[in-house]
Amino acid sequence: MKNALKWTGIVIGGLLTLLLVALGAMYFIGSSNVERTYEVQTASLTLPTDSASIAHGKHLTEIYGCADCHGADFSGQVMADAPPFRVVSSNLTSGAGGVGAHYTPEDYDRAIRHGVKADGRSVLIMPSAAYHKLGDADIGAIIAYLQQVPPVDKELPATEVRPLGRLLSAGPFDPGFEVNMEPARVDVPAIGANAEYGAYLSSLCAYCHGDNLMGMEQPPGPPGMPPSPALAAAGQWTLEEFMTAVRTGMRPSGIELRKEFMPRFPAMNDVELAALHAHLGTLRMTSSDT
Question: 41 versus 277: which is more confidently predicted?
Answer without folding.
Answer: 277
